Amino acid sequence: MYTPEMFDSIKKVEATRPARLSAEVGRLGAAEKDQLLAKYHPDYRKDAFSTIEVGPNKGERAPHELVAILQARSRVSGVSINADANPDVDVDVLIIGGGGSGAAAAIEAKKNGADVLIVTKLRMGDANTMMAEGGIQAADKANDSPVIHYLDAYGGGHFKAQPDLLRKLVMDAPLAIQWLEGLGVLFDKDKDGTMITTHGGGTSRKRMHAAADYSGMEIMRTLRDEAYNMGVPVMDFTAAIELLLDENGAAGGAVLQNMETGERLTARAKTVIIATGGAGRMHYQGFPTSNHYGATADGLVLGYRAGAKLLYQYTLQYHPTGVAYPPQVYGALVTEKVRSLGAQLVNVDGVAYLNPLETRDVSAAGVIRECAIGKGVPIPGGTSGIWLDSPMIDELLGKGAIEKRIPSMLRMLGKYGIDIREVPILIYPTLHYQNGGLRINVTCESPDVSNLFVAGEAVGGIHGENRLMGNSLLDIIVFGRTAGKNASEKAKGLPIPTGLNLKHVDRFMKEAEAAGVKSQTVSPMLLPDYTRHAAGS
Amino acid sequence: MSEKDNSSVRVFLFGKRYDVPAGLTIMAAMEYSGYRLVRGCGCRNGFCGACATIYRVHGDRELRACLACQKTVEDGMYVATLPFFPLVKEIYDMEQVRPADQVMMSLYPEIYKCVGCNACTKACSQELRVMQYIAYAQRGEYERCAEESFDCVMCGICSARCPAGISHPQVAMLARRLTGKYIRPRSQHLKDRVDALLRGAFDAEMDAMMNLPLEEIKTLYNGREIEK
Ligand SMILES: Cc1cc2nc3c(=O)[nH]c(=O)nc-3n(C[C@H](O)[C@H](O)[C@H](O)COP(=O)(O)OP(=O)(O)OC[C@H]3O[C@@H](n4cnc5c(N)ncnc54)[C@H](O)[C@@H]3O)c2cc1C
Ligand code: FES
Q1: What's the pLDDT tens digit per position in A263-274?
Q2: Where in chain B is the domain with CATH 3.10.20.30?
Q3: What are phi and psi of A330, to 5 degrees?
Q4: Domain B8-81, second-level architecture
Q5: Residue A6: how many CB atoms within 10 A of its CB?
Q6: Less Cβ around it within 10 Å: N or C end of chain B?
Q7: What is the pTM of this model?
Q8: Which ligand is the nearest neighbour of the Cα of A468?
Q9: How many other β-carbons are positioned within 10 Å of the β-carbon of residue A306?
Q10: Which of B:96-155 have CB within 8 Å of A?
């Protein structure tokens, strides 16, 4: 339940609500946006970044926490591996990560006749994909086109997306939705089958398809079910901790670790797909996160040490509306759909100070600014937040809209005595998405390490420097499937790799030593440590 | 020795007592007490069903179930996590199955052994009417089963409580896929757009856009019309 001080502010929110229901808040001009970002967006905080000293992106900047794990000690330093004689796992295609992109890749690779295996750190589907609420974009309505979708995403990503990747994303989008529909995903539809679509931040057409506010869960559980039906083997509670390269420097497998027993295994594969997802649990700049427990950028570390270059590793997405209060759900996501459906961002005085559908980076910077200039709602403990005026939704769309369109939000906050039909939601930005990641070409293969494919949130470049809502669920389907098809196709023409080794890791460690990097940390991180004794140490 | 102060509560994790600050979720209370979780923790926010947990509060005869990441600790709570429950998942080919009456009978016949005890509904961590959606599945009303079960996170608590051995989440999974694939109408505008794309209908326009100088693309972006 909210504090008395919060209720005082809610009175002001209620007082301005009738007028706000009909008045739209103007959008910022290009120059205003740039100023806001430069002053308040976390990506622009110089003291939060350091320079990478080792590897393909040497000399570029990245958040301190990422630099630390890229340059940390390997979990298998100095260990000799003999994977040629008797690998524990021997497949055509090894898929690392059992989220949406990994599952989509597995389905296509299996369909293409490959012997595939998914290894995943937690259970299959314990992943960011499962948590996506808002929806998935595709230009499939008459007033829309892939070209408009391209423009929205290109501009939203500050014109930094790799054009060929973005083109593929938007051109394949309707096919991706149709593929999901054919697998039985329950999209929100009218009686005649017309998709119910809404806006997302930065869209110029209503092209957000959804399955209530469980869009990712509905997609993930369907893909998982399909993978099981097809007989895709899954080794769960198993993490990849280093890639294995063959004698020619191409990817040829991975070293695996059982998350429970610590047992190490070697996996040999003709092609490898990194589908390890994001990095929210790195808590960059101390932000809370909306991500699942295993989002620790492992794939970036693995790929980087093997020589794959990163793109845009210096940009993260802070979702403007993470829960700021109550503390039990601090950092949890309040889906952008709440704003798509009409809820405004309102400050302590009841003023709607920013159009609710600016792109995420602009909205997040707007929330941070408002709090920084003392217009936030005070929270016990000394922080503050901004109201997301959810009761507007039922006022605008009719009673029952909240219950039908955003049931998981109603449930999440209802558990703490907050009925979002009656009172607004207190929010503050949360670390949400890794914009940057490993570089790929349109076939999903790394241009730097052959036979290594990457899909999903571990990729950098599809979205440029900021991703629009709904384009990530889309990219895991489009590029997940592409990676699965191409990795399995390429595997057909490849011999069993030989001379598997970890020399690249040893080389990387020597280079680090020569650069004067002294790290006490080991990486990949695998899981964060939230025990009290860890926090105290 | 004082029993406890007001700001802390006693929880019994697998029977062992720990004093933790009030207001923590069960998951946070475990971590506060020193457990480093591997199993039983996935999304940490009520979507994945990894953290199914059963508990009983001292003095209460009822055995309750919840998601550990969603439930705040109470004083005198005895907690046991249920990080894995062996559900039955049948294998089927979505291209072959149809939403006909026999499909449940052949894949999940145990649903017809439901004794109507309603333990599944009482245990559901999402407060779904589980017994009701099983009844719909029995009657071949797959669309209603799909709607009623839509918010299921497949934590498996219902099945753990079921005397008939039903794997409710898997039954619902099949019903939803049948509904999405065969019962709800397919989207015509989607099909039209896919056909157009496969014909290459947008290729030229896309090429033209991509070949524009960056400054012109920026102008287009900043001046684009936004659908109301
Ligand atoms: C709360 C939330 C809401 C979102 N809402 C939306 C939305 O509405 N629309 C949208 O488009 N996008 C949304 N996103 C973003 C989108 O869901 C994700 O970016 C996308 O699903 C990522 O898919 P993925 O397959 O790349 O990664 P994931 O789904 O995270 O899967 C990666 C898997 O790899 C495993 N893994 C990691 N490291 C290793 C290792 N070393 N070895 C083995 N396995 C490993 C992980 O545990 C995980 O299971 C949302 C994200 C979150 C967190
Ligand atoms: S950890 Fe996913 S539901 Fe609790």
Answers
A1: 999 999 999 999
A2: 8-81
A3: -55, 125
A4: Roll (3.10)
A5: 20
A6: N
A7: 0.96
A8: 1
A9: 28
A10: 126-127, 146, 150-151, 153-154
